[in-house]
Amino acid sequence: MKKEFNRIDRLPPYIFGEINKLKAKLRKEGKDIIDFGMGNPDMPTPKHIRDKLKEVSDKPGTGRYSMSRGIPGLRKAQAKYYEKRFGVKLNPENEVVVTLGSKEGLANLAQAISSPGDIIVSPNPSYPIHPYGFIIAGASLRHLQTMTDGKFDPESYLERLDRSIRHSSPTPVALIVSFPSNPTAQVVDLDFYKEIIKIALKYNVYVLSDLAYAEIYFDKSPPPSILQVSKAKQIAVEFTSMSKTYAMAGWRIGFAVGNKKLIEALTKIKSYLDYGAFTPVQVAAATALNASQSCVSEIRSIYESRRNVMVESMSRSGWEIPSPKASMFAWAPVPKKYQNKGSLKFAKDLMTKANVAVSPGIAFGEYGEGFVRIGLVENEQRIRQAAKNVRNLNL
Fold first, then answer.
1. Is CB count within 10 Å lower at the N or C end of the chain?
2. Which CATH number fits domain 52-290: 3.40.30.10, 3.30.70.360, 3.90.1150.10, 3.40.640.10?
3. CA-CA distance, 98 to 101, in Å (whole number)?
4. Closest-CA residue to 391 (of 339, 347, 340, 354)
5. Could you write out the DSSP letters of every residue in 191-217?
6. b/e 210-245 (16+ beta carbons within 10 angstroms → b)
7. From residue 42, how far is each of 22, 36, 206 by CA, in Å?
8. CB-hemisphere CA count at 13 Å for 200?
9. Average pLDDT, stretch 349-372?
10. Residue 58 banded pLDDT, cuts 50, 70, 90
11. What pLDDT, on a 0 to 100 scale, did the predictor assign at position 42?
12. Closest CA relative to residue 184, chosen from 301, 35, 333, 14
């Protein structure tokens, strides 16, 4: 009997599992843990979306298999969203596929385009599915440091990217970009994407853009899409999600759009693996995209208010947290008291001594050490209470 499994053995220890185990232990002991660890929206899905789900669920035949690539109405709604929001025209027949959340889409595209020995350029720190989806698929990684001392310098990043691809043998199959970033909340402008596409075309490398936080932003200028760049569709595909935009994380609806060859590859592999999301969920998702977007503005304002309360209240407790410009996260430096102890030790002490859960930066890659990620997923009262609890650490 085989006792070792290569794909599993290639994965590093799951640090989130260690944190979650401690969290469960403390809660079993009766501790009230204020949980900023997971990017799991706590507000309700807007009523008109829930009402559409109920309406369609009551119709005969809706319990049958759906369409793996997404129902036509939902693909058309996503194409309409891209044209209105970004000025990007998409053919819903061959440039749009519905995914079970952006995470599933990224993982399945990795399976579709990777072979053993292929190289992928992945940001570090990074949302775990970016590197590990490709590791599971059998590819090898070149980690690209995205920040230095907690700061993002676009020019240095682009120089490192060009150098990384130039010195890779074989040439990477694809590179991953993710802005607004999870976990760092970093944002970029369209000029940055123009340089990314220029580099990708120079070396004939696909670009996989994760734009899950397109609508969670706090500056006047909304985040751009990489597909706004001329010739981007020749080489790029972009993933978006309804999870954060409409507080629909558990509904598992996302999209991949862009390059026809990559969309075709993802569509084909999905046809072997799933039958798509429950049809009423897809219809409700189309309603969300086609209806008034006032609910998106309301959700965005909730995150912005929580961000402000988080930064202000933690500062009074001795922990200075940079104010994020976008996403539902803050990327916070470990206080000086813990700089030699590491982000995991700090995260554990926050839980055991202050009843506050965060995600250690080391869980997002070696270059995430020295930071923790804080999810804006508790209400303002709980955030203020967490700040009071943090005082117990005498930071």
1. N
2. 3.40.640.10
3. 8
4. 354
5. HHHHHHHHHHHHHT-EEEEE-TTTT-B
6. bbbbbbbbbeeeebbbbbbbeebbebbbbbbbbbbb
7. 22, 11, 35
8. 28
9. 94
10. very high
11. 93
12. 333
Q: Which of 315, 310, 332 shows the shortest CA–CA distance to 384?
A: 310
Contacting residues for 296 by C-beta, under 8 A, at least 6 apart? 215, 245, 246
Find the farthest-apart pair of alpha carbons in the chain and give their distance in angstroms, rounded: 62
- Which pLDDT value is given to residue 148? 85
> Residue 16: which pLDDT band, with cuts at 50, 70 and 90?
confident
Question: Which contiguous run of DSSP H or E holds residue 314?
Answer: helix 294-316
Rounded distance, CA 17 to CA 14, Å? 5
Domains of the chain: which residue ranges?
A: 6-44+295-393, 52-290
DSSP letter for each residue of 356-392: EE-EEGGGG-GGGTTEEEEE--S-HHHHHHHHHHHGG
Structure tokens at 339: 């700089």
pTM (predicted TM-score)? 0.94
Q: Nearest-CA neighbor of 387 among 353, 358, 354, 357? A: 354
Residue 22 is encoded by which pair of tokens?
């401690």
- Residue 75 CA to residue 94 CA, distance in Å, equals 10
Residue 84's contacts (CB-CB under 8 Å, 6 or more residues apart) are: none
**Which residue shows structure tokens 């995470």?**
103
CA-to-CA dists, residue 191 to 222, 232, 242, angstroms:
14, 13, 26
Written out in words, the top-level CATH class of the domain with range 6-44+295-393 is alpha beta
